Prior knowledge:
Layout: E1 4-10, E2 14-21, E3 26-32, H1 38-48, E4 55-61, H2 64-71, E5 77-82, E6 118-121, E7 124-125, E8 131-133, H3 137-150, E9 154-158, H4 167-179, E10 184-187, H5 188-191, H6 197-227, E11 234-237, E12 243-245, H7 246-251, H8 259-274, E13 280-285, E14 290-296, E15 299-300, E16 302-303, E17 306-307, E18 313-314, E19 318-319, E20 322-324, E21 330-334, E22 340-346, H9 365-371, H10 389-403, H11 407-429, E23 441-445, H12 449-459, E24 464-467, H13 474-478, E25 484-490, E26 495-496, H14 502-522, E27 530-540, E28 547-551, H15 557-575, E29 584-595, E30 616-622, E31 627-635, E32 644-646, E33 649-652, E34 657-660, E35 665-668, E36 674-677
Amino acid sequence: MTEFRVGVDIGGTFTDWVMADRAGNVQVVKTPTTPDGFSGVFDAMDEAGANGQKFRSFAHGTTLGTNALIERRLPRVTMVTTEGITAVLTQAARGAKEDIWDIYDESPRPSIVRPRDRLEVAERTLSSGVVRHPLDETEARRVARILRGRGTRTIAVCFLHSYTNGRNEARMKEIILEEYPEALVRTSHETIPRILEYERFTTTILNVALIPVMIDYLEALEQGLRKRDYVGDVLIVQSAGGLMGVKAAAEIPVRTANSGPAAGAIAAQEFGAVAGFDNVIGLDIGGTSTDVSVTLEGQVRTTGTWEVEWGHPIMFPAVDIITVGAGGGSVAWFDPGGKLRSGPHSVGAFPGPACYAKGGDQPTNTDAHVVLGNLRPGAMLGGAMELSPQLAEQAIAKIGHTLGSDAVSAAAAVIAIAEANMANAIRLATLRRGLDPQDFALVAFGGAGPLHGAMVAAELTIPRVVVPPNPGLTSALGCLLADIRHDLGASMFYGEAAAVDLDAMNDRFDEMDAAVRASLDQEGIPAERQSVVRTIDMCYAGQWRVFPIPVEPGMTPESLAGTVESFRKAYLRRFTFDLGEREVEVHGINVTGAGITDKYRPQRVTAPLAAQPTHGVRPVYWREAGGWIDTPIWSRPALPVGFRTRGPAVVEQMDSTTLVPPGVALEVDPYLNLVLDTTGGGP
Length: 683
């Protein structure tokens, strides 16, 4: 019986379903995303005619947590904290602004915990872990009764220095549940036992806020799959790119807040590698946003602290992704100064762009592509979704009216603005981090990625663009490329590296190693398929941005000295300067465990070049040429390995359309990737 690995990615506009068999053959389905999210999964499953009994695995990337945080569709949260530090969420919020030059910017937005919902109790633990003042249990019970009286069910307990000793937090949680059994309580030491109270508090608060949001979704998803005869594990993609079970995802849902984009980054790494590139920029453009990831020397770049919303950090590992509101559904508009803008607001799946003929009338990037001839009315989803050129032109004409131009010129302007936003996102991910885009290949995917990839690459002088075989479903394929992952961290060794108690550090490393391996054992991962990596978070004295440096088990003074040198080299590479002999500090230790899964792998095609495929022709407006050109229109499924052509050209397929501008060379590689050469080389 044929068995399938299933990957599903829910985006703002479409839900993508991919099934891969043992031979690497892929079946794909793309359906509109439904408002509740999970029913779109079952719509795709029904359209695929899939039988749950034949599923070997089911991996899912979701933006539910991301969207809930951005839109603040969250329950009311109360924080219980140490007496005298309720201002941590305001006065201690780093004083940072997303744009430091914008005098009107009042970011970060207010915390999701209102001032009246920040309650305090008398207790104090020192940074050494010594409990100077045990929890005042009389006061704690009074606070618990206030919570019960208010009916606030979602509660975060965040005490000072609990990362070294969580005894007082644990007791506070016990008292709350004794007085208020219906409460949902999470403590910071069980969520993220790390130094930096602001980041620890916000991570704990966002996590407990997401639990009610995610748990209903995950239960409905799992129950729906069980009704459809799937009996295996339901796996969720983490923000760090690994997989976790639904039970773990329901317990720490904040770790899934960048789930879908992380799956896309993994896929970009894989398709870049098979095309021969170790340095890859992932350009994932969907219906609502553009997500940019970076793979350097074969490794996807990650970060230890990140934000869905500026000023509300999440202190869990995540793929380092820059996101801007530039997608197919992004709305074109004019700011108060009369400047044309694109996004970040998106029309989503419903009503969608005007050309979808579902009631939308706002001008979007997709409408602009239709006006320019880039998208053929009958090409969307293989003809399953019709596009209306008339409605697209009516929407874009609104922009033209303000600009004093015709719809075509207005459409070209809309696309130019959108692509400038995309290029700026890549600059943030590369140039501002000491990397040169010219040293990378661009992997363009998502439904709209291939529409923009070549033009954005040319803007940044990126020499090669790789378009995977199913670009509109690449993130779903990324779900099939991930391993099971568990991360543990501790901030018990803060201080100068030379003064660290290595015996205590090794003992703690061993405890965390055993805990990670036990979790992998529980998930049925055999020992030979387990991989555990240890790292130490280090920084220069006087700084707090850390680098995780890999270490081997059984640290010695000599190996620690080598780790310090590795940190200095990593710092130099990242910032292009070093701080000489300044002391290096340890901020914490980490253990990451991976359970190596059976993965989908792109298959190499060895069939010889067939006869030259035929193509149609239609007028397409090329901004680079300044006018309309009768352009060859190729059907991608008909293009064999080794096929070559030079732009202008348009390549159509069910899930996306690839634009090949004038002078850009295109070749189909042995993995059926489209490889575009923007340098003017090639055939």
